[in-house]
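Example record

The entry below shows one chain as it appears in the dataset: sequence first, then structure tokens.
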Amino acid sequence: MAAQQDGFLREVDEALREDQMVGAFKRYGKPVGLGILAGLVALGGYLYWDHSQKQAAGERSERMILAMEKAGSGPASAAASLAEFDALAKDGSDGSKAAAALTAAGIRQQEGKTDEAAKAFAAIAADGGAPQPYRDLATLREVSLRFDTMQPQQVIDRLKPLAVPGNAWFGSAGELVGLAYLKQGKPDLAGPLFGAVAKDKTVPESLRARARLLASQLGVDGGDTPDAASAATAQPAQ
């Protein structure tokens, strides 16, 4: 009797659980199924988007490489290259657009179109959507092209944020800011800046050599004396 009663109770318990599961499935099965389906659709959409993005990035890279190869293949090819980079600068991610725009501006500079290049660099520098490193480089390139026509204080205001040790453009920006100080008649500000550039080992040696010579002429320690090759490289630029 005890065994039969125990078996009966188990059957009742199992039937109750089955009934509860059926009820839960009827109540929540449809929403859960729709949720799973939505998750699968979202996952599939993301995978497709990711694949499309990678494929588009690869195609853009190929276009940029081909356009770069055309740039040095004669006037006609250079014009086609410039048109391609202008097109690439209008479509794609913020970084890829800025890179294409910088390259197009550089081609214009090489072709002697200084005003057009300066305006292009200025547009990149003012583009709030472009990554900051690209904007900083564009600012530096613009100011270097317009240095002779800008007021010294304008040069200082534009480049002083970049003319600090540790910044990627410290060497070039520091040199231009130092020259602007000299144009203002402020050798006391120019000398230490040239000295700091000369001592910064992350700065290219040719630029350090120029800064070292200028610092020494202003009575500021510029670090080690440059070798003959570096001095020869620096003299014409000075």
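Notes for this example: Confidence is low (pLDDT under 50) at residues 226-238. Residues 200 and 234 are 16 Å apart (CA to CA).
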